[in-house]
Amino acid sequence: MKRIFTSIYIGLLASQIVYADSVQVKLAPGYRPLAFKIPAAGSYDLPVIDMAADGEVLTSNNQVRHLYELMGDKITLLSFIYSTCSDVNGCPLATQVFHKINRRLQKEPELAGKLRLLTLSFNPEHDTPEAMSRYAVSFTNDKVDWQFLTTQSEQKLKPILDEYQQAIQKNYDQQGNFTGTFSHILRVYLIDKDKQIRNIYSVAFLHADTLINDVKTLLSISSTQKPSIASVNNARFQKGDNKQHYAEKSYKTQSIALTERQGQQTDLLNNINTAPLGLPVVPIPEDNLVSTAKIALGRKLFFDRRLSLNNTFSCAMCHIPEQGFSSNEMATAVGIEGRSVRRNSPTIYNVAYATKLFHDARENTLEQQVWGPLLAQNEMGNPSVGYVIDKIKTLSDYQGLFAQSFNSDVNMLTLGQALASYQRSLVSANSPFDRWYFGKQTDAVSDSVKRGFAIFNGKGACSSCHIIESKHAIFTDNQTHNTGIGYRESMQILPEKRNIQVAPGVFIEVDQQAISAVSAIKVNDLGGYEITQDPQDRWKYKTPTLRNIALTAPYMHNGSLTTMTDVIQFYNQGGVDNATLDPLIKPLDLHATEKDDLLAFLLALTGSNVQELVADAYNAPIGN
Amino acid sequence: MNNYLKKSTLSWARLVQAFALTVTTLVISAPVQADETCQSPYMAKIVGQEDFVYVWTLGMQGVGDEQDKLVTVDVNPKSAKYGKVINSLSVGGRNEAHHSGFTDDRKYLWAGGLDTNKIFIFDVHTDPAKPKLYKVITDFVAKSGGVVGPHTTYALPGRMLITGLSNNKDHGGRTALVEYSNSGEHIVTHWNPTDSDLRGAVKTGKYADGYGYDVRVLPRRNAMISSSFTGWNNYMMDFGKMLADPEAMKHFGNTVVQWDLHARQPKKIFDVPGAPLEIRCAWDPNHNYCFTTTALTSKIWLIYEDKQGEWQAKDVADIGDPSKIPLPVDISIQSDDNMLWVNTFMDGKTRGFDISDPFNPKQVFEQKIGSQVNMVSSSWDGKRLYYTSSLLANWDKKDKDNEQYLKLFSWDGKKLTEQFSIDFVKEKLGRAHQMRFGAYSLYAAFQPNKP
Question: Residue B431: helix, strand or coil by DSSP?
Answer without folding.
Answer: strand
